[in-house]
Amino acid sequence: MDDQLAISVRGLRKAYGDTTAVDGVDLTVSRGEVFALLGPNGAGKTTTVEILEGYRRRDAGEVSVLGIDPDHADDQWRTRVGIVLQGTGEFDDLTVAEVVHHFAGFYPAPDDPDKVIDRVGLVDKAKSRTHALSGGQKRRLDVALGIIGRPELLFLDEPTTGFDPEARREFWELIRDLAAAGTTIVLTTHYLDEAEALADRVGVITGGRLVEVAAPARLGNRENALTTVSWRTPTGEVERAESATPTALVGELAARFGGEVPGLTVTRPSLEDIYLRMIGHR
Ligand SMILES: Nc1ncnc2c1ncn2[C@@H]1O[C@H](COP(=O)(O)OP(=O)(O)OP(=O)(O)O)[C@@H](O)[C@H]1O
Fold first, then answer.
1. How far is the CA of 16 from the centre of ligand 1 (A)?
2. How far is the CA of 87 from the centre of ligand 1 (A)?
3. Which residues lie across from 14 on neighbouring strands?
4. pLDDT at residue 89 in the model
5. Mutation pick for ligand 1 pocket among 12, 46, 49 (CB with most ligand atoms within 8 Å)
6. Sign of CA dihedral 73, 76, 81, 87
7. How far apart are CA 35 and CA 19, in angstroms?
8. What letter does residue 95 receive in the DSSP assignment?
9. DSSP state at residue 129
C-alpha cells in the first residue's frame, strides 16, 4: 500500500440482513488529511467508520488502515488509532481527571493527561464526577479519551453534537492543532459548517454509496454554481437574478442606480445548499 495513505478502502460492502448499509465504497484518506464523511441518517457512515475502526466486520472489500487490515488488528495498531464514538462519557463515580489518567495508562506514549484536560476545556471540571457532567462536557471527555494516546489517526463520530457554539469553535481549534501536528482525522458530522471549517475533503454517502468526494469548495461543482444577486427596485420590490458573472451584474446595477444598489445581496450556494441538492432535497 502507498505509505502516504492512512486509509485505503476498495469495494466495501456490509449488509444487516436485508438492509444494505454499505454498498461498494471506494475511498482513500491521505496521512495528515482531515476527511469528513457526510450523509443523511442511515446513509452508512457509522457502519463504514466502525469497519475502519475494527469494530465491525465487513461482508466484502479490501480495507487497509495505517497499513493493517482492521479485521486482523492487534493491540499495537489499536494504540495508534484514537476513537471518539457517539456518546459514552460516563464512568460511574470516577472524576474527569481520574478517567483521563486511567486511560493514559493504556498507551505506550500517552500525552500529559492534565494538558489534554486543558485542551478539551475541562480544567474546571477535572475534579467532577463524570455522571455530573453536562452533555457537551461528556462529549469533551470523549474527545480527551480519543486523543490521550496521541493517535496517528483519529476517528470522530459526530464529535460536537450537544456542544454550545463556543465549545464547537474551541473544538475546531483543537482539531486544527492536531491536524497541524500531523494527525489524520476522519469525522462524521451533520454540521455542514463544521465540515467546511475543518475538512480538506468531504465525502457524501447516501444509501450506502459514496456519491462524491471533493474539497468543500468544489463539492457538487459548487465553484461553478450560479450566484444569486438580489436588490431592491425603486418601487421597493426585491428582484433576484442568478448569474455566472455576478461581478459584472453588480457593476451594471451600480451604473443603473448611479451608485449604491439598494438592498444588495450576493450569495453563493452554501455547502449545505449543495449537499441538500446532492442528497435529493431542493
Ligand atoms: N446493528 C445493526 N443492525 C441492523 N441494521 C443496522 C445496524 N446498524 C445500522 N443498521 C442499518 O444500516 C443502515 C446504515 O446505518 P448507519 O448507522 O451506518 O448510518 P449513519 O449514516 O451512521 O446514520 P446516522 O447519521 O443516523 O448516524 C441503516 O439503514 C441502519 O438502520
1. 9
2. 16
3. 22
4. 60
5. 46
6. positive
7. 26
8. B
9. B
Task: Find the residues whose C-beta lies inside 6 A of ligand 1.
Answer: 16, 19, 21, 39, 41-47
Q: How confident is the model at residue 87 (pLDDT cuts 50, 70, 90)?
A: low
The cell numbers describing 66, all together, are 495505517
Give CA–CA dist 142/138, Å, rounded: 6
Mean pLDDT within 222-243: 92
Q: Look at residues 139, 146, 152 and name the one whose alpha carbon lies nearest to residue 116.
A: 146
0.90 cut: is pTM over it? no
On whether ipTM exceeds 0.90, the answer is yes
**CA 44 to ligand 1 centroid distance, Å:** 6
Q: Parallel, antiparallel, or unpaired: how do β-strands 60-65 and 34-38 relate?
A: unpaired
Spell out the alpha helix ranges (H) of 148-203: 165-180, 192-198
Grid coordinates belonging to 190: 451533520
Q: What structural domains and CATH numbers belong to the chain?
A: 5-216 (3.40.50.300), 221-278 (no CATH)
